[in-house]
Specification:
alpha/beta; D-Maltodextrin-Binding Protein, domain 2; 3-stranded parallel sheet; globular; receptor; transport; TRAP_DctP_sf
Length: 326
């Protein structure tokens, strides 16, 4: 009788375990609006994963800060309330080493970023691990440009006194302070209203974020600066990701790699299409003097090298992989 009871209990446990696996919902939160590169990235990752996972688990994507703003999502990852997030600039607030990507003009193009990924990813994965996270894969937030309602920006001096929203990353703030702007860190979801009401004069983002957030409706000028290329990270809690079944982790990692290819191709096409969309909305567009911005950026590099342990070495390695210098 005891044997039957034990066998019955084991079977019940197995059935319960299978039911739990079938009901495993993995929530992916991000701040991107409909039409954004973030939305396309998260949706592609979810579709890929769900096609491969079958009944083992389901990835559900939630955009527009529905599950929280960037800092909240980082916290919710650790609490297990969210399973994936898509942070970009905010990672420099997690660990100083991510700040190397905040150095203006340090990443030349996506091929350069792939080389950095191939040669240096252990540095950034180590930084993530030390802070309780794991990088499941890379995506991007693209090359950033400046919009504002004061004047066209051709050289750094044109930013003098401009109230410019930045993400919550210390190095972006320092960079724009050095250029002469008045940088104001603010959550992305608050930016449209702040621009509309004149709380801030401008902001800086890739075209995909500018267009999907409809900033062209409340901005007069777009200056093509390309001052920062921002990687984005398909990020998970190390503890919670490691607790997933091995076969689930394998599928998620593979889908993250596939999503990077998709994101890079989509981003490159968006750079063409969305610039035309922004122009069509009546925004005045100008090509900034990048050489002037690069020259004005040297003190930011010096500060990073001085203030971040190993910062100078990080800069040198990233630049060397680009085949040039900034």
């Amino acid at each position: 009788m005891n044997t039957k009871i034990l066998a019955g209990a084991a079977l019940s446990a197995l059935i319960a375990g299978q039911a739990m696996a079938a009901d495993m919902t993995l929530r992916f939160g991000h701040v991107g609006n409909p039409g954004s590169l973030f939305e396309a990235t998260a949706n592609h990752f979810a579709e890929c994963a769900n096609a491969e996972l079958g009944d083992a688990a389901e990835v559900q994507a939630f955009g527009s800060s529905q599950l929280g703003k960037d800092q909240e999502l980082l916290q919710k990852l650790k609490l297990g309330q969210v399973h994936f997030a898509l942070p970009s600039s905010v990672m420099s607030s997690v660990d100083d080493r991510f700040g190397v990507f905040e150095m203006p003009y340090i990443i030349q193009d996506r091929d350069h970023m792939r080389r950095v990924q191939g040669e240096m990813m252990d540095v950034f994965e180590g930084a993530a691990n030390e802070n309780g996270y794991t990088i499941v894969g890379l995506a991007e937030n693209g090359f950033r440009h400046i919009t504002n309602n004061v004047r066209p920006v051709n050289v750094p001096a044109d930013l003098d006194g401009v109230k410019l929203r930045t993400p919550n990353g210390a190095w972006r703030v320092k960079m724009f302070q050095h250029y002469g702007a008045n940088p104001t860190p603010m959550s992305f979801s608050d930016v449209f209203t702040a621009l509309q009401t004149g709380v801030i004069d401008g902001q800086e983002n890739p075209y995909a974020q500018i267009a999907s957030a409809k900033f062209q409706e409340v901005q007069d000028y777009l200056s093509i600066t390309g001052h920062v290329y921002t990687p984005a990270y398909i990020l998970a809690s190390k503890k919670h990701f490691d607790d997933l079944p091995e076969e689930v982790r394998a599928v998620l990692s593979d889908c993250a790699a596939q999503t990077q290819d998709f994101t890079y191709e989509t981003a490159a096409q968006m750079e063409v299409d969305l610039l035309e969309e922004i122009k069509a909305a009546g925004v005045e567009v100008n090509e900034a003097d990048k050489a002037a911005f690069i020259e004005a950026s040297r003190p930011i590099y010096d500060a990073f090298a001085a203030e971040v342990e190993g910062g100078g070495d990080l800069i040198d390695k990233v630049l060397a992989l680009g085949g040039g210098s900034s």
